[in-house]
Design brief:
Length: 64
């Protein structure tokens, strides 16, 4: 696959199609990071809090 950025001249603007493609790729990466954060960090933490296991951890920290 050819690198489309090598086809651009130094004084020429980027084509709109290329700009849109790059921005869509960045948005997809950001969405992937947000989804991973949701399911790896926030979801388990919420389940632990709902089951009450988080209360015992907080009590242990306060006792020390």
């Amino acid at each position: 696959m050819d690198n489309p950025f090598k086809k651009i001249l130094h004084n020429e603007e980027l084509p709109e199609v290329l700009k849109e493609k790059v921005l869509n790729d960045v948005a997809m990466i950001k969405l992937s990071i947000d989804m991973a954060d949701l399911f790896v960090v926030k979801y388990p933490s919420t389940i632990i809090d709902l089951l009450g296991a988080g209360d015992t951890q907080k009590k242990d920290k306060n006792d020390k």
